[in-house]
Amino acid sequence: DGVANDTQAIQNAVNFMPSPVNPNWTDRGGVLTFPSGTYLINNEITLNKNIEVRGEGNVRISGDVSGSTHKCAFFVGADSYLLSANSADGYYHVVIRRINFELITGHEFAILNNGIRNCIVEENTVSGGASASIRFVQAWGGSRVQNNLFQGGGNKGLDIDDHSNAIRVIGNQFKGYKWIPNQGIGLNIRGTMGAWVINNDFEYSYIQIYVMSTAAAPCNNLVIRDNWIEGASGGSVFFDNTLGGFAGLIFSGNSVWGDPDGNVYMGDPGSSFDFEGALIQGNTFNSPAWLNKRGSGAFKSIIQNGNFPQSINI
Questions:
Q1: Residue 157: its pLDDT value, please?
Q2: In sequence order, what DSSP letters do the residues of 21-68 get, joined into one string?
Q3: DSSP, res 79
Q4: Are 202 and 174 in contact (CB under 8 A)?
Q5: Residues contacting 251, CB < 8 A, separation 6+
Q6: Cβ distance 226 to 197 under 8 Å?
Q7: What residues contact residue 305 under an 8 Å CB cut-off, 6+ apart?
Q8: 104: which DSSP letter?
Q9: Contact 294/269 with Cβ under 8 angstroms?
Q10: How many angstroms separate the CA atoms of 162 and 166, rounded?
Q11: Residue 16 dihedral angles phi and psi, to the nearest 5°
Q12: pLDDT tens for residues 28-66?
């Protein structure tokens, strides 16, 4: 009812769900259903087993979780999974679906995934977050963020960081991440290999997509395709090579509008790392000078065709 504190009841229900003796991503565990209503919490709910958490109807998670350990509503995984040498750590299948997160200002995240390798976040509504609305750290193959509404009001919409790989970001809406002047990113990707960013709608954040490669975890084999990217005031798409180069980039079929000084920024002014093996094809830009190349890094094997305005000499 949005009045009584539901934190312990929710956590007890999660703990009660059966957990396989030998958990793996093929054994999906049980489904915990939230009927329509407002659920008030004041601490994070830990999801560290094979489980699907699903809202039925109009389900709202509300409350102040700023005093919890990770300052989030749903904490997926465990801190011990990060950089773990145990290959079984993080092999769970966690699904979070159809929940509206309306947390009071002061939280860092609505959902924080620390090391779960098969985490699906789908058809939710999230906003705010001093760090990000949703953050994935070392989330390996099988994870997907799909058909969610990111409503702004925080520093980042979706933050994918630190040795994550093969994450699919599909069909989401990112709107208005301008938490403070001259800051705010719709989608932030750092040190992540093999990500797919497909058919998303990015609107009116300070920066829509920011990708940073690192030497330890290069952002190779990255696909950004068929997205609508509009209204960035600080730059539409950034590929930051300050800490490492890029290889195997596909940027295709996107519509990019709203930054007349340059829609796509490749490189950092002080960096010498290279871009190698990129396909830039079939995109529509609103700026004749749509590519802003920065730094001394080389562009090797870059293929451009079918872009409007016509491809430029880089």
A1: 94
A2: SS--TT---EEEEE-SEEEEESSPEEE-SSEEEEE-SSEEEEE--TTS
A3: G
A4: yes
A5: 224, 225, 237, 264, 278, 279, 280, 281, 283
A6: no
A7: 281, 282, 311
A8: P
A9: yes
A10: 13
A11: -75, -25
A12: 678 999 999 999 999 999 998 889 999 999 999 999 999
All residues at 6 or more sequence positions from 105 whose CB lies less than 8 Å from its CB, including other chains: 128
Look up residue 301 and give its two tokens. 């094997």
Task: State the Cα torsion 256-261-219-192 to the nearest 10°.
Answer: -70
- Residues 6+ positions from 69 with CB-CB distance below 8 Å: 44, 75
Least confident stretch, 82-86, 160-164, 266-270, 306-310: 82-86
- Distance separating alpha carbons of residues 34 and 37, to the nearest angstrom: 8
pLDDT at 100: 97
237-281: pLDDT as tens digits:
999 998 988 999 999 999 998 766 668 888 888 888 889 899 999
> Token pair of 235, please?
């730059």
- Say if CB 39 and CB 6 are below 8 A apart: yes
Please compute the mean of the pLDDT values over residues 172-200 and round it to a whole number.
88
User: Residue 229 and residue 305: Cα distance in Å, rounded?
Assistant: 19
Q: Is the pLDDT of residue 214 over 60?
A: yes
Distance CA 259, CA 276 (A): 25
Higher pLDDT: 138 or 162? It is: 138
Q: What's this model's pTM, rounded to 2 decimal places?
A: 0.93
* Position 137, amino acid: V
Integer Cα distance of 257 and 276 in angstroms: 26
